[in-house]
Amino acid sequence: MKITQSKTKFFHQLYTFFFFVFILIASAGAEEIYTGSKEKIQSLIGPVYGNTIDFQNHFYAVSSSGVLFKIQQDFTKMTVLHKGQSQSTGYLTLYEKSDKEHILIWGDGIHFHNKSQLYFYHIESNSLVKSIPLDGHIEKGVIIEENKIQNAAHLYVTHGDGGVSKIDLMNYGLLWNKKDYNKSPIHSDSKVIIFDQLACFGVIKNLKGILCVQKMTGDIVKFFPLKYQPFGELHYDQKTHELYGFSTDASMTETEFRKPSTLYLINLSKQSMTFEKEFRGYNIFGPMKIMDEFLVSLSTGEILSYSHTRQDLKMIHDFPEPFINNFVAKENRYCTLGIMGKLLCFERNKIINSDPKTNALKKSESFQYAKVKDERLLITTIGETQLTGNFLLIPTRQGIHKVDIQ
Fold first, then answer.
1. Nearest to 228 by CA among 192, 162, 281, 287
2. Quick check: 47 and 397 in contact, CB under 8 A?
3. pTM exceeds 0.85, yes or no
4. CB 380 within 8 A of CB 392
5. What sign has the CA pseudo-torsion 171, 175, 180, 181?
6. Are the C-beta atoms of 347 and 369 separated by less than 8 Å?
7. Which helix (H) or strand (E) holds 223?
8. 347-367 residue pLDDT tens
9. Whole-angstrom Cα distance, residue 197 to residue 199?
10. What is d(CA 401, CA 174) in angstroms, rounded to the nearest whole number?
11. 194 touches 142 (CB < 8 A)
């Protein structure tokens, strides 16, 4: 049987086509590894808004461009693990499926996106095992609730105007999606707080407040209206079952630093609002709660302590630079960052109160704060600072910065 020249040319083209398809598929799954100076690695990572996962002597982070990185802890080597489909705030959650299986979960999409992906990356196999499309955008980390006895695990995620969803982690099926309340659409960019049978989250735009639903069904249980939008990070005190944070109409891009905010405290076990306290200035990432005392840093440059039980407001420090970052604590040392890189740390020490006439000790306790660290970092912080060992991990416009607070 003779093979004509045209057929030979056809088979050659077909072979060439499939060869390049194979190369593209192989290269798509290949890791990109970079080595070099700390400065080079930082520049390659680029802006980071979300948190960093410290796992097995490496850092894992997602850049604002939606790329998942594995970073050597001295920042001299970096591996690109996955490139997402869109921009991302990069809030990561580590799910320990078993002793030998660990999955990184994060979403993409920022405020103007109406479609997003929820990603599941298996660390041990270095592979993306699942991607779930969702309406809206995912700006905060997911919350995972496990029941080892029943071999069950569920995920809660807010996704902008797509509402709030609960997903079964055993089969990645959607259990429920809540998109409206009293005929008003739900828009949520907060994390979810789980308490008993409740799943609570912040809602903005048409609704301003904290909405709690029945975690099994998604049915509405309680709405806590707030004066301003709950743009600030939600926090939860597991000992007192209290949810707290800042509500404000300001945002990370705000230039009017005297815009007001309210510090709110909600008792979830009683399903009641404990108090709202208004401040001049705001903080996107919220206060730190120590017993009945709140440490507050504000966009006005003021650093305060406030006790709602004693109605006691104290000035700790006043600085001309806006402070909209969170506090981190290491024993009795509390640190916070200014928007232009000013790092301040304070030690919290008990004041022994006594009667000046009898020298008898009083029962009431109070604390004072002494500044122990004042350092200018050449960074612009854009995300929530976290503590690992004696180091701060700071998301910035120039990658992740690691800073010793001792």
1. 281
2. yes
3. yes
4. no
5. negative
6. yes
7. strand 220-225
8. 999 877 665 665 555 555 678
9. 7
10. 37
11. no
